[in-house]
Amino acid sequence: MQKDMHDPEHSTGEAPDAARTSWRTVLGGVVAVVLLAILGYVGYQILHLLNPPNTYETVLTATVEDKVEADGVVLFNETVIPGGGDMGYLAEDGARVSAGTVVAEVYTNSGQSALRASLTSLNEQIELLQRAENVSSTQVDTMIQERTTALYDLLDAADRGALADMDTGREDYLLAQNKILVVTGEASDFATQIAGLQAQAAQLQSQLGTPAQITAPLTGYFVRSASTRQLTQPAETILAMDAPTLQAALAAGLDAPLTGCAGKMVSGFSWSYCGVCTAEQAQKLLRADGTPLTSTVRIRFPGQTDEALPAELTEVTIDEASGLARFVLTCDSVTGEVLRLGQAEAEVIVSETTGLRVPAAAVHYVLETPEASPEAGSASSAPAESTEAGENYVPGVYVKFGNLARFCRIDPVDNDHPLVTDGDYIIVPPKGTDGSVSEVRLYDQVIVEGQNLYDGKLLS
User: Fold this and answer.
1) Which of 58, 179, 284, 427 is 20 to 30 A away from residue 277, measured at CA?
2) What's the CA gap between 413 and 436, in Å, rounded?
3) Whether the model pTM is above 0.90
4) Would you state the pLDDT for residue 291?
5) What is the mean pLDDT of residues 197-218?
6) 406 — phi, psi (to 5°)?
7) Which residues pair with 70 in a beta bridge?
8) Burial, 211: exposed, middle or buried (Cβ in 10 Å; 0-12, 13-18, 19+)?
């Protein structure tokens, strides 16, 4: 009888052995691939550690101020305005008024204050409508542009939280809109509306009565008592203090709230600031011969106003023993914010530099050679071997041009090109600036970190 070919007793075992061999081959291949991947990753990391990729930074414009920080007092030629009680002010802080102008009124009951506010609002509406009727231009496009500008100014003031500018912007917008209505014929005039508002104003005026008035004793700038402060010592006494005495007085406090009066009047167009700073910083306020700078400086009061006002130094005295300095400057620009000040910290801006902001870490010093390429100015195209200034070495930065590194010169530090820093950056003039050899341009890609850089190097 023929035996069954599938009889287990007569099986040769070749199929299972082949399967096991196949699985071993696959497993070995997977392990080999994994090991190759791990080795490749480790090799990649080692390669980057030994030869890290270049890092770049875009060159942008920046403005840097060279300034002196000080503490001191603002000195005005001021006169206190007598008055008290429940006062309502008719003049804004910083407004210039003539002698005899009514700046405030005294109320005898709480309702008068609300009546005055309503009356003021009505009078403003009447004035706007009267100004709109006197329109002289028939160019609607121009008026629409005025309205758009006023709207943008109003939105900008709202974004900055400037309430006074918001009121001005609102009035400008309404005036421009009313002019458009008159010119386009949508409103022939505002006579009916004005008459109605005037009737309301007359009624409110009769209810308000005739409160006692407070007038300006002289011509000048008016400031409310609640908005300003008064010095605790006369200006003459403060100006006679040396640096240590002034610093001690400032530490104790040289001003206090202005109370018991309606406000003050500041006469004249100029004021002074008497301040104290460190002796080291005061050197910035002096010329080479030790006399105060004759050029115009600017003064700003951080936290009070962002506006920097032009001023002139009249005195700078350094006390070497205490390491302090005292200075006095005068300013002919008057603003409402400054009029409110007494003792105040200030920044005296000596100079301002605008240029290109370049990382200081990107600066290299390359040996100067006569046979340099045009792109590299007068610097060698060989790899740089120095990162510090030295004889026959020129400073510069490597910039990415396409896929090449190009060496761009910057000015060496000298009397004509003083070093101006901004944290970890330096300020350099852009290419084409008169009296400068700088080759750096706005939006250049400067190589901040790189290995073996030289002019013409191919970048990966």
Assistant:
1) 427
2) 11
3) no
4) 92
5) 80
6) -120, 135
7) 346
8) buried
* CA 381/CA 61 separation, integer angstroms: 28
Q: Which amino acid type is present at position 278? A: T
SS (H, E, C) 368-393: ECCCCCHHHCCECCCCCCECCCCCCE
**Residue 405 to residue 369: CA distance in whole angstroms:** 18
**Which position has the higher pLDDT, 412 or 53?**
412
| 90 burial level (CB within 10 Å; 0-12, 13-18, 19+) | middle
**Closest by CA position to 213, among listed 111, 112, 114, 124:** 112
Q: What is the DSSP string of 273-306?
A: EEEEEEHHHHGGGB-TTSSBP-S-EEEE-TTT-S
Q: Is residue 285 within 8 Å of residue 316, measured between CB atoms?
A: yes
396: Cα separation from own chain's centroid: 29
- Residue 219, token pair as written in the block: 């011509």
Burial class (CB in 10 A: 0-12, 13-18, 19+), 129: buried
**Distance between CA atoms of 97 and 130, rounded to whole angstroms?**
24
Q: Decide: helix, strand or coil at residue 47.
A: helix
pLDDT digits (tens, 9 = 90+) for 82-93: 988 888 888 888
Exposed (0-12), middle (13-18) or buried (19+): which is 380, by Cβ within 10 Å?
A: buried
Residue ranges with strand state E in 207-320:
212-215, 220-224, 229-231, 255-257, 263-266, 271-278, 297-300, 309-319
CA-to-CA separations, 11 to 8, 21, 300, in angstroms, rounded? 5, 18, 103
CA distance 281 to 422: 17
Return the structure tokens found at 144.
């629409």
CA distances from 6 to 3, 12, 13, 14, 17 (A): 9, 10, 12, 13, 17
Output phi, psi for 90, to 5 deg. Answer: -105, -5
DSSP-based three-state secondary structure for 366: strand
The lowest-confidence range among 203-207, 244-248, 340-344 is 203-207
pLDDT score of 273: 97
For the cut 70, the answer to whether the pLDDT of residue 178 exceeds it is no
What pLDDT score does 378 carry? Answer: 44
For 44-76, how does the pLDDT look when each residue is reduced to its tens digit (9 = 90+)? 566 555 555 788 999 999 999 999 999 999 999
Which residue has tokens 């920046």?
A: 62
User: How far apart are the C-alpha atoms of 159 and 150, rounded to whole Å?
Assistant: 14
Percentage of the chain surpassing pLDDT 90? 43
Cβ neighbours around 327 below 10 Å, total = 25
For position 382, what pLDDT does the model report? 47
